[in-house]
Structures are given as structure tokens and as C-alpha cells.
């Protein structure tokens, strides 16, 4: 049965955004929302007939805000606004991103703070529920005055124009998709063009999706690190709870707890507990400091969740209809709060991936892997083993470091210097999505490498978590060289789908 989420006066959750964007959940408007939308629309219509100009209602936009628009030109004004702002360029962005931004714009419209007409909002809801997804292109948003071009392409679809993908993913004209779904386009009235395009919904939607991905990937990073510690004959003593409590960062404690669970009941670990037999005093940083790095990443993610939840509770438009009935200009459309955390998460990803790649590399170096063959090869020299898998991880990490350069420190003035400082939050969101994909791949290569290293420790037996993860990866064990790319992509899919985390939790119990 398809999930239905009520959109109304209260904020959506991150889980709601993910359910609609990725899970195809349906939405419905609350009765309270419908009443508030109708009430605020009455205020806008009263101002539309006022002899005093009101921004966005009877004036132009941006640098043209002082231009009064006569009544007979106002429908044309709204269409001109949307059509001119639907100036995106480049490849279409992902369906889940467009569905997320559509939902978030609907959520703001449903607060009654924008002055949208009820019938326009109802059509937006129907379009989303029908699975009709406007074509939104890669470039066009500066992350200020809203994600203008992305949202304008969605608004253009409400008017029956441009192209969309239907629920089956087929590209077609909007008019064709609307006809098939039994929908009628709208003719926008005063203020509606602004209400449809003036929000941070694109960057916020992508932040919510990244939070969902990273909540899974940071747990997977702990699993991979634990298996690397196991396969490299490292110690779990440094992950003891009392040692971690000496530096009381919450994320660090959670990561250390995960690592203890991953290494529990490992015969490989037990094989070198005797201090008289193990001469190493301490492990390398990439093993020993995993909780500190992964934990800091978790705390950064928790901050991002806080920002996202605040933004989900916001009503972003300009001007807005206040609770007491005023229509006021404001600067809440500026994307800085979201842009900063999008950049922060890209930095975190680069560092977590960099540490993962270093653990992978240790497995392959005979001088550091404590008795394993060079590159984990079956016949070193004839075989190269996982040598080039590390190259792949290193190439991805190098790109992640470039993607960690913040977008939010840049600003290019626009609109004849009226919009003279912008957030570039959309650009931060786009590079964060690429970074999430890169981290997925780097962790997959570490898991593939750790699995082979652990298997080469036979007859020593790994712990239950490593056994469960290796079974889930379902790739051939050590042996002569073979075509490696399909194995890497298979593990990438297992990581991305959450199957690695699920397998580990079946063996270990809940992991943070």
C-alpha cells in the first residue's frame, strides 16, 4: 500500500522528503492548510486592486521592482516571470531531486504564507502524485532569491508548458502528460509566479537526500574500518568505551561502539592478544583513529540534520503574507544556512574517504600488511591482485578533495547588482551528490579488499560480522586475477542499497 503523507501547517521531516522523493509516497493537504491558503489569497487579491504598488503583486521583479504593472498586463507578468526564469541549461537532474524540490515548494505553499491560489496548489499536489516530473536542468540557480531556474521549470509545467517525464520515466510534452493524467494547466494570477519560484527547495531537498545517504554510509564506514582492523591484525583495545569517554564527542562514542561490535568474537583478533607474541605497540592512525574521524563526521551530520529540520519548518518566499495579514518583503530566500552545511558535508566525505583509502592501501603493501601477499595477489608478479582497485579508490579520493572546495565562499552579483551577494547553494548540493557517490565507491573498495585480506588469514576465523558481510558481498575469494570491475560495481551496489549495513546488523545487532 502506497504511503500517504499529510502536508499542512506543521513541518515535514527528512524521512517524509525521502519517502516522497525516493519511495513514491503520495501527499495530501490538511484541511487547516486549505483554509489558511484561501485566507491568505484573499489578502493578495485585495492588494491587487490597491492603487498603491505592492512588490510582486502589481510591480516588476528584482531590479525592476519599481515598475508598476497595470491590471491588464498582470497575467502576462506572471507568465513572463516564470518563462524567463526557466532558463536552465545542461543535463536533466535526477528524478528524486526534482520530486524533493516539488514537495518542499508545496510544503511552503501549504503554510499560507505565500498567497498562492488554492487551485494552483491543488494542481501542484496532483502533478506530484501523478508521478509527473518536470525536466529541471543542471545549471540555473545561484542559491539566492530561491532556486530560481529549477523551480521555474516546475512552475512552467503547471502552466502546461515545457517537457516532463511521466510516472514510467518517459519524456513527453507537459500537455500530453497532463491529458493522460486528467489534469488541466493553470493561468497564473498576481503573486503566484513569485510564490512558485522563490525558495531554497532544490538545495534543501538535496541536503535531505544526502543526510539519508550519509546516515547509512557512515555506519558502513565503521563496518569497513572494523574489518580492516581485523584483517590487518590490528587491536580493538583502543576502541574501549572508557578510553573514548576521555574525549566525550557523541559521534566518536557511537563509532567506537560500532567498531567493538564488528570485531567481537573474532578468531583473527584473538590470535594476537598475547602481548608477548604481538610486538606492535600501536596501530597506524588510519586504524587507531577511525572513531575520531568517523565520529567527527557523525557530529557534522548531526549539525546538518539540525539545519535541515529548521529549514523544513520555514516558509521561504518574498514577499510573504504574515500571520497577522501583512505582506512584507524579506531576505529569507538567501541560501547561506543550507549552503554552508552542504559544503561542510563535502569536506567530511573527503576526509572519511581519504582514511578509507589509506586502510585499503595498507592491505596491499607487503611491508605493512603483516604477512599477507603483495597486493593480495595469488601469484605476485604474474598476478596484480587488487593493485589497481587501490588506484581507482585513489582517483576517487583525489576528486573528492576537489569537491570539498566550498561553493558557498563564491558569489557573482546578478540582476543589475540588486542581487549582489548569492549563496551558490545549488552548486554545493550538486557537488555533494557526486561526493556521496564517491564515498560509496571508496568504501566498497575497502570492503572488497578487507574481505580478501580476511579470507587470506585462514585458517584463522573472522568474527560473525565479517562473515556476514563477506557472504553479502558474494564475490569470489582469493585466486588468480580476473575481471575486477564487475566485482567492484557489485560491491558498490551492496553498499548503496544498504545491504552491507543490514548484513552486519543481522550479525551484530543494531549499529549506530
UniProtKB/TrEMBL annotation:
It is found in: Cytoplasm. It comes from the Bacteria. It is an enzyme of class 4 (lyase). Keywords: Histidine metabolism, Lyase. Signal peptide: none annotated. GO terms for biological process: L-histidine catabolic process to glutamate and formamide; L-histidine catabolic process to glutamate and formate. GO terms for cellular component: cytoplasm. InterPro entries: Aromatic_Lyase (IPR001106), Fumarase/histidase_N (IPR024083), HutH (IPR005921), L-Aspartase-like (IPR008948), Phe/His_NH3-lyase_AS (IPR022313). The keyword Magnesium does not apply. Its main location: cytoplasm. It catalyses: L-histidine = trans-urocanate + NH4(+). The keyword Lyase applies. GO terms for molecular function: histidine ammonia-lyase activity. SUPFAM superfamilies: L-aspartase-like (SSF48557). Pathway: Amino-acid degradation; L-histidine degradation into L-glutamate; N-formimidoyl-L-glutamate from L-histidine: step 1/3. Its EC number is 4.3.1.3. PANTHER family: HISTIDINE AMMONIA-LYASE. Belongs to the PAL/histidase family. This is Histidine ammonia-lyase.
Amino acid at each position: 500500500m502506497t504511503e500517504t503523507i499529510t502536508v499542512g501547517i506543521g513541518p515535514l521531516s527528512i524521512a517524509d522528503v525521502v519517502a516522497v522523493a525516493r519511495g513514491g509516497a503520495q501527499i495530501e493537504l490538511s484541511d487547516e492548510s486549505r483554509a489558511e491558503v484561501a485566507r491568505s489569497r484573499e489578502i493578495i487579491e485585495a492588494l491587487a486592486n490597491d492603487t498603491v504598488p505592492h512588490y510582486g503583486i502589481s510591480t516588476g521583479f528584482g531590479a525592476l521592482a519599481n515598475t508598476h504593472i497595470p491590471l491588464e498586463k498582470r497575467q502576462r507578468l506572471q507568465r513572463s516571470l516564470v518563462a524567463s526564469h526557466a532558463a536552465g541549461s545542461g543535463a536533466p537532474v535526477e528524478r528524486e531531486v526534482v520530486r524533493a524540490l516539488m514537495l518542499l515548494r508545496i510544503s511552503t505553499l501549504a503554510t499560507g504564507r505565500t498567497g498562492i491560489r488554492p487551485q494552483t496548489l491543488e494542481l501542484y499536489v496532483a502533478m506530484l502524485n501523478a508521478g509527473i516530473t518536470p525536466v529541471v536542468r543542471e545549471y540555473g540557480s545561484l542559491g539566492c532569491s530561491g532556486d530560481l531556474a529549477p523551480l521555474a521549470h516546475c512552475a512552467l509545467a503547471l502552466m502546461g508548458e515545457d517537457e516532463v517525464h511521466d510516472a514510467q520515466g518517459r519524456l513527453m510534452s507537459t500537455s500530453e502528460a497532463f491529458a493522460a493524467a486528467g489534469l488541466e494547466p493553470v493561468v497564473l494570477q498576481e503573486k503566484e509566479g513569485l510564490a512558485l519560484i522563490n525558495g531554497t527547495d532544490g538545495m534543501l531537498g538535496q541536503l535531505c537526500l544526502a543526510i539519508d545517504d550519509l546516515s547509512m554510509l557512515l555506519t558502513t564506514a565503521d563496518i569497513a574500518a572494523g574489518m580492516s582492523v581485523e584483517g590487518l591484525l590490528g587491536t580493538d583495545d583502543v576502541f574501549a568505551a572508557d578510553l573514548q569517554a576521555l574525549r566525550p564527542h557523541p559521534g566518536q562514542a557511537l563509532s567506537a561502539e560500532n567498531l567493538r561490535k564488528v570485531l567481537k568474537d573474532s578468531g583473527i583478533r584473538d590470535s594476537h592478544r598475547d602481548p608477548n607474541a604481538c610486538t606492535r605497540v600501536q596501530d597506524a592512525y588510519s586504524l587507531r583513529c577511525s572513531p575520531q574521524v568517523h565520529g567527527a563526521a557523525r557530529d557534522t551530520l548531526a549539525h546538518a540534520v539540525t539545519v535541515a529540520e529548521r529549514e523544513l519548518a520555514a516558509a521561504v518566499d518574498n514577499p510573504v503574507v504574515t500571520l497577522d495579514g501583512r505582506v512584507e518583503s524579506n531576505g529569507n530566500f538567501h541560501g547561506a544556512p543550507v549552503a554552508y552545511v552542504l559544503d561542510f558535508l563535502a569536506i567530511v566525505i573527503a576526509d572519511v574517504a581519504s582514511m578509507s583509502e589509506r586502510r585499503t592501501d595498507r592491505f596491499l603493501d607487503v611491508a605493512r600488511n603483516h604477512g599477507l601477499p603483495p597486493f593480495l595477489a595469488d601469484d605476485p608478479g604474474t598476478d596484480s591482485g587488487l593493485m589497481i582497485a587501490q588506484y581507482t579508490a585513489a582517483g576517487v579520493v583525489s576528486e573528492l578533495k576537489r569537491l570539498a572546495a566550498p561553493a558557498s565562499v563564491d558569489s557573482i552579483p546578478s540582476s543589475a547588482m540588486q542581487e549582489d551577494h548569492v549563496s551558490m547553494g545549488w552548486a554545493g548540493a550538486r557537488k555533494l551528490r557526486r561526493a556521496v557517490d564517491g564515498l560509496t565507491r571508496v568504501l566498497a573498495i575497502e570492503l572488497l579488499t578487507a574481505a580478501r585480506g580476511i579470507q587470506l588469514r585462514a585458517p584463522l576465523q573472522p568474527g560473525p560480522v565479517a562473515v556476514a558481510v563477506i557472504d553479502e558481498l558474494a564475490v569470489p575469494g582469493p585466486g588468480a586475477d580476473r575481471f575486477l570491475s564487475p566485482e567492484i560495481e557489485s560491491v558498490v551496489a551492496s553498499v548503496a542499497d544498504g545491504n552491507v549495513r543490514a548484513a552486519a546488523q543481522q550479525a551484530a545487532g543494531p549499529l549506530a
